[in-house]
Structure formats: C-alpha cells, structure tokens
Design goal:
The complex is a heterodimer of chains A (400) and B (103). In chain A, the strands form five sheets. Chain A has a five-stranded antiparallel sheet. In chain A, strands 2-3-1-4 form a four-stranded antiparallel sheet. The radius of gyration of chain A is 43 Å and the shape is elongated. By secondary structure, chain A is α+β, with helices and mostly antiparallel strands. The N and C termini of chain A lie far apart (92 Å). Helices cover 27% and strands 44% of the residues of chain A. In chain A, strand 2 and strand 3 form a beta hairpin. The radius of gyration of chain B is 14 Å and the shape is elongated. Chain B starts with a strand and ends in a 5-residue tail after the last strand. The chains are: A alpha+beta (400), B mainly beta (103).
C-alpha cells in the first residue's frame, strides 16, 4: 500500500467531485476501462468524491458525458504539481540544484586527516608517505585505496608496529602504534638483594655466587655477580640464579580513641568556572561555611576541530560540614588500626611471597592525664620470597 | 454472514463442485465465485466482481457472478475499484449474500 501510494504521489492525482444520476454505472464503466478510482465517498444525493490519477482523469471525460455526469477538480496533489509550481520559480530550482551539487561535491572529498596513537616524531613521516601516495586534504574519497595506503604506511614508516586507515565520512583516520623494543642490557647483569633478608635457598645458574645460604644480606648487596666481556666481541656473562630469602617486614598503624567527625549538614553551594583560552571567570557564589569539603567536576569542550582554544567548565560544589569529636572503644580502635596495618602489609608484600608467620603487637598510648588516648598496632610479617633483583653494570660499556 | 435468499437458485451445482474437489482446483477459479477477504471489520476485499450497484456511507452493494454482496455499516467508502478488485473500507456491520445459490 505504501509503495503504491508513493507511486500514485509521484504520478500525480486529483480529487474530483462527480455529480450525476448514474454514479454507480459511471464508476463501473471507469473500472472496466482500467481507470482506477479510489477513496470513493458519497457526499450527498447524486454527488460523490473520488481520487483518480492525472492520466485517468483525462480518460474520464468521454465517460462523464456518456453517463450525464459532471466532474470538478477539488484538489490537486503529487509530484507533478509540485514540480510544476517549482518550475515557475527558476531561482529556487537553480538553488536546489546548486545545493545538491555542492552537498555531493563537498561530501565526496577528504576534509581532514586525523592521526591517533602515533608519536609526534612519526607523524611527519606518515604525512610524508601520505603525500607521496597522493592522500591529502580535498582529494576525492573514491580515489583513496585504503588497503594500499595502510600497507604502504606499515612498510614505509620505521618503528610503526601497526597501522590502520579508515574513512569516516569526510575524515581520513590514521591509527597506529609505535613499536616498543625490549631494553637490552648495556653491560653484564648482577643479581642484588631487593631487601634485607636471610638467604634461604641459593641455586646459581650463571655467574659467581657472592653469598651463601643462611647468610644475612642487606638491600642492594650483590648476591650473584655476572662477568664483563674479557675481550671486545665476547658476550658478557649475565648472572642467573634462584634466590629465596627470609624477609621480615614491619607495619604500624595508630588509631586515636577520640576522632574528629566530619558530617555533611546537607547544605551546599555550586558555582561554575569557565576557562576559555586565557580568560577565566566564575558564575555563582561560594557558600561561606566555617567547615566544608569541595567536589569538582571538570568537563572540557573542544570548539571545532583543532580549534584555537578549548573551553573548560568546572562545577565546584561546597558541602557544609558539621565538626564534632566522636569516641571509639578500645576494641574498635584496635580493630581499625589492625585493619589499616594489614592492608598496608597486603600492598607491600609481593604477590609470590610465601607468608611464614605474622606477629601482632598492640600498645595503648596514654594522654597527658594518663588516660588511654590511642591504640597502636604493629604487625611483623615474615615471608620467604624471591629477593633477586637484576642490576645492569653500565660501567662495562664505558670501559671503566 | 447470512444467506440472503430463502429459495436460492442452484447456480453452482453439486457436480462442478465435486469436479473441482476431485481436481483440487480452487473453487473461486473453478466455479467463477468471487473471493472475499476481510481484515477485521475494517476492510473487505472482493476479487472477481462485476461492479457496484449501490454506494453510500451506510451500504455498499457489489454485483458478483454468484449474486450480490451487500455490505452494511458506518462511514463506508470504496477505497479502490479496478476491473478485478474492489476494496470497501469503514466500520463494517454486516455482510449479506443476496441471490446466492446454496447447494
């Protein structure tokens, strides 16, 4: 129905009012002559409205006279009438055509070339390669062979691990990733202690051991030494070993029995700070609170593509605080301090370390009036872990 | 739907029906019957018609090879008429078969 309606609209149609005494016979005669009538509605005695195509309307004339009917056009519709009306306004037609041509022309060329993920030193080289391939602003989009450009970039730009080229509308997007080369040691490698420890196990795979099992070492002490190249051209010996040491770490935390409570009262004030280039101004008022905390939400808006400045909008909210002194029991303070020390231990101990023992000590601190004022907790965690740390001897290369 | 005539004529007898049953041919084609299809009570499509007999907003009567189809209702209109098909739209209240054979 929708397609036939569109077709009818494109061909043009008229809504006619037919009057006469033999309307049904007129309708049947029209149908038998392949003149399709639609939306036939009786509008009174001896009158009827109907819709008919432009061509059909012209073919109706002999039938109207044959059945003694008269037809008047009530409404015209469809593309031919619109085109006919527009054709009388030449300037508008020219404008529409120019607009269509300009729209098509401007959307067929590359307006901008964006690069993402590429280091600044490689940008120039990429631009150079694109220029050589004829890819620059204002070239036709259809003239760019995306696959070829991508392959050529990957081949011609040194240090580029990967390149992707994509046309997004009128923007050519070049994505890339720089190669990250592994760092090669300059001199020979020694293994040193990462922390103070007692050597638990030592298996030397390469190099010369400088310590024995059961020996106490300090952080930075050489455990296994490599060897520099004896003659130019010879490969240095890098120390390799499995070294596990017993390490003790101490974590302390303190929780006072009286703590300051900062509770938001519910009052707040917001102001907006606008930064446009070097210009900076604020809209709104700051709340004049004795105690408050501040939240900031920053949003940056870029004006245009590669525009001269960005607009930064900062929403600053001040929440009024009510300050008070709250007290906790000794058990609560101990639990809080222990929790803090334990989480510090969790962060500090390496993931591969094997926990051997945890020693826990707590101390009640007294205030000036000799009443308890705080609880201190000390956790001593004993672990067995890999303590070998590689150290590059750069002095080899300098010939020292 | 109601049979319109008390003593209908046997325009489409038993024999042609049996032959069409035997051959598996559609009855509207084999017997020259109109094909009526309804969409709710809003639209009636009649194929193989022989023209409009009456047309107004309360009643539309359509002549077919088997007899007349009388459609009554409100706001009725013929939304399309061609040589083969007629489509009646509106609030259809009833359809009556006038002068149809019942065998």
């Amino acid at each position: 129905m929708a397609v036939s309606g569109l077709w009818e609209w494109m061909r043009g149609y008229v809504i006619i009012k037919v009057t006469g005494r033999m309307l049904e016979r007129f309708v049947n005669a029209a149908a038998s002559q392949h003149i399709d009538l639609s939306d036939l509605v009786r509008v009174g005695e001896g009158a009827m409205m109907a819709r008919v195509s432009l061509r059909g309307y012209l073919q109706l004339r002999p039938l109207l006279s044959a059945f003694g009917c008269r037809a008047s056009v009530e409404m015209r519709g469809g593309a031919p009438f619109i085109v006919s009306a527009a054709w009388r306004r030449k300037a508008m037609v020219v404008g529409i055509v120019l607009f269509a041509v300009a729209l098509y022309g401007l959307s067929s060329v590359v307006w901008t070339i964006d690069m993402t993920g590429v280091s600044p030193e490689r940008r120039a080289r990429i631009v150079e390669v694109l220029e050589r391939l004829g890819v620059r602003r204002w070239v036709r989009r259809s003239s760019i062979d995306i696959d070829f450009v991508r392959d050529e970039l990957a081949r011609s730009v040194d240090g580029l691990a990967w390149a992707g080229v994509e046309l997004q509308g009128t923007t050519l997007v070049v994505r890339g990733a720089d190669m990250i080369m592994p760092q090669r040691p300059v001199g020979h490698i020694d293994l040193v202690a990462s922390s103070d420890a007692v050597i638990e196990r030592l298996i030397v795979l390469a190099g010369e051991a400088r310590v024995r099992e059961g020996e106490t070492v300090v952080s930075g002490q050489v455990l296994v030494a490599g060897r520099a190249a004896a003659v130019p051209g010879e490969q240095p010996v890098h120390a390799r070993a499995i070294i596990r040491g017993r390490v003790w770490r101490e974590f302390r935390a303190r929780t006072p029995l009286e703590i300051e409570e900062r509770i938001r009262t519910g009052k707040s004030s917001a102001r907006y700070l606008f930064t446009i280039g070097a210009l900076r101004f604020a809209v709104g008022r700051r709340g004049a609170y004795d105690a408050y905390d501040t939240e900031e939400l920053v949003r940056r808006v870029r004006i245009g593509r590669g525009g001269p400045f960005d607009v930064e909008i900062t929403r600053e909210v001040r929440h009024e605080l009510s300050l008070g002194i709250g007290s906790v029991t000794r058990a609560e303070a101990f639990a809080l301090a222990r929790e803090e020390a334990a989480s510090a231990a969790q962060r500090a101990i390496p993931s591969g370390a094997e926990r051997v023992s945890v020693l826990e000590e707590s101390v009640d601190e007294l205030g000036d009036d000799l009443s308890p004022s705080a609880v201190s907790v000390c956790l001593i965690v004993e672990t067995i872990e890999d303590i070998a740390l590689m150290r590059d001897n750069v002095s080899d290369e300098r010939g020292e | 739907m109601a049979a319109g005539s008390r003593f209908p004529r046997r325009s489409h007898g038993l024999a042609p029906r049996r032959v069409s049953d035997l051959l598996g041919a559609p009855k509207d084609v084999a017997l020259g019957l109109p094909c009526l299809s309804l969409e709710g009570n809003l639209l009636l499509r009649i194929e193989n018609h022989e023209g409009v007999v009456e047309l107004n907003s309360q009643r539309v009567r359509v002549h077919t090879p088997a007899g007349q189809v009388s459609i009554s209702g409100r706001a009725l209109k013929v939304s399309m008429i061609s040589q083969d098909v007629i489509i009646v739209e509106g609030w259809i209240g009833g359809i009556e078969f006038v002068g149809w054979g019942v065998s």
